[in-house]
Amino acid sequence: MPKIILVALDCGTELADLVLQSLDTLNLQPDTQIILCHVIPVVASEGELVADRPHDPDLEQQLQTYQTDLSCPSQLEMVAGDPAEEIVRLAHIYKAELIVIGSRGLTGLKRILQGSVSSQVVADAPCSVLVVKLSEPGVVFNG
Asked: In what residue span(s) does the UspA domain sit (predicted)?
């Protein structure tokens, strides 16, 4: 089982809840380290105005709420930038052995226009990636 797991969350969404539920299926050990991260997307024109480590009390509180439900040690990371790039960067920094990320299931034109963060992370990650899919509204991950 991986010792360091980076969990990428879109805080406050049903998909974030599913990603966290998926951790229950991983047989986590007491010494497993979880890094809960949230990336605040930055529009190119805003890039110079936003700090690398933004401070958003609401997001930070949401991450802390998620953190209290974990059964092993954890850290919080909240950064600004391109979500896929930042998730991969954090995986390198922490030497993550697994990344857990959600997928909204975009297809067709939406996927082309908005891009797929999970697909980009899978392509660029230095480790294995578990993608949790939101298949249908209201469907709950059941392991």
From this structure: 1-133
